[in-house]
Every structure is written in C-alpha cells, then in structure tokens.
Amino acid sequence: MGQFGADLEDTLQRLDAAAVLDILLIALFIFALLMALRGTTAMTLLRGGVVIVSLLFLLGRVLELSVVNFLLRNSLAGLVLGVIVIFQPEIRRALERAGRTSVRALLASPERSAVVEAVTTAVLELARRRHGAIVVLERSTGLEDYIESGVRLDAELDPRLIEGIFYPNSALHDKAVIIRDRRIAAASCTLPLAESPGAQHLGTRHRAALGVTERTDAVCIVVSEESGAISIATDGRLIRLRDEARLLPTLEALMSGDSNGSRAPAAAG
Q1: At how many degrees (to 10) do helices 76-86 and 41-63 cross?
Q2: Those residues with Cβ within 8 angstroms of residue 204's Cβ, 6 or more apart along the chain or in another chain
Q3: Is the pLDDT assigned to residue 262 strictly greater than 60?
Q4: What is the pLDDT of residues 47-106, one digit of tens each?
Q5: What is the CA radius of gyration of the chain?
Q6: What residue spans define the domains of the chain?
Q7: Which fold has domain 109-268?
Q8: 241 phi/psi in degrees, rounded to 5
C-alpha cells in the first residue's frame, strides 16, 4: 500500500495543465466515438472486443503469461488499425455528418411556421388518401448531395404540388421530396437506407427516413401506402403518430430545435 501511495502521489505531482487538457481531449474523443456508435451493430462488436482484451489482460497479469503480455504491449498500433477497418462505416457517417453541417442558421420563425403548416396540410391529405410519401425538411445540415440525386424543381411550396408529386404512378412519386427554406428543392430523391438492426424489419420508405436523419439533422415525414399512418423520423429515431392532430405541434417542436426527442413522446401518444 505504501508503494502504491507513493506512486499515486508521484503521478499527481506530475499532473499539470497540459496533462489535464490531454486527458480531457482523449476522453472527449472516446465519448464522441461511443455516441457515434450508439444503437449500431458496431457497439456490440466494440463491447465484445473490450471484453476479450480485458480478459486477456487479466489472465496475462494473474498467470504471468509472457507471450500474451508481450502481444498486448506491442499490439496497440494493430488494434487502432483494426478499429478503423471494422468501424469504417460508422466513422465515415460521423465525419460525413460533421462535414455537411452548414453555417446557415435555421429558418426564421414566421417562415418556419409557414413551411410546417404547408407540409402538414399536404401530409394529412396524403394520409387520408393512403398515398405513400416521404418528405424531408432541411435544417442546418445541407442536403445538396441528396437533392442532386433527384429531379431539381426549386418550386414554390404548395400543398397541392406535394400531393400531385406523390399521386400514385406519377412520374416523380417514387422516393423523396426535399424542402429547403420555403421551396420544394427536388423530388424523386434517393436517400440512404438505415443500417441499424432495428430498421431491418421496416419498409423502404421508413428505412430511408431513418437513414437520412442518422446522417443529418433533417426532419423526415413518412406516409405509409398500406395504412396511411404518419411517422416522423429525427436523429435516427422514428416517431409513430397515433393521433394525426399531433402532426403540426410535433413538427413545430422539432423544427424549432427540439430534436432530442425529450418532448416527442407526447406527440406520439
């Protein structure tokens, strides 16, 4: 205990401002990595890897296994490379999301309200007619890559135009409509499909809605073609509205910046 106390005291004496900053930066990096992997299959792989490495470390120390201890001491570079290779999709998505964030601020409140009301009117009519649809509302993260994948419209936002786009068998009814500011930027846009295990049982529209909200801060509204049910995707999560009257207040809350889902369950009830 005396030697341990002396070692601890020596370590604390060598802690200066630079060392504390160094520790904080590493801790923030690890925290950001864990947040990026949250809810993905990569998190399961990471937990399994940590368990195996910890078990090998304990066995090597307790049983004094020289080969195991040697491999653990000299495998740091290999482990880092392995993490990069195994978690490449998650790292790429995190960098993509960070790089897409634009400096442009959110819409002004009156404009935002007009957009939400127009989209709500169109979505409720589409749900009543059971016309499948997926509408993406751009926020601070740019969606230009997805806009370029579709047919650029740059049209005035009108509920009747949105309804016409998603009319069954129309030329642009497939895939997504993207709303930028107060205009319909494009239609028939291709969105990335969610890859999380919980999304595998969902239909293509709902997986696409989750996929784009996993990579950006967009808000996505989905109308089911089979049932006419309305769902809202945000931050990689899906909110199923059991009461259509909650669509407008839910969108207003999300578009005003409440995207963490803390108030969203009330809208789903």
Answers
A1: 160
A2: 193
A3: no
A4: 777 888 888 888 888 888 888 788 777 877 777 777 777 777 666 666 665 665 544 444
A5: 24
A6: 2-100, 109-268
A7: YojJ-like (1 (3.40.1700)
A8: -85, 115
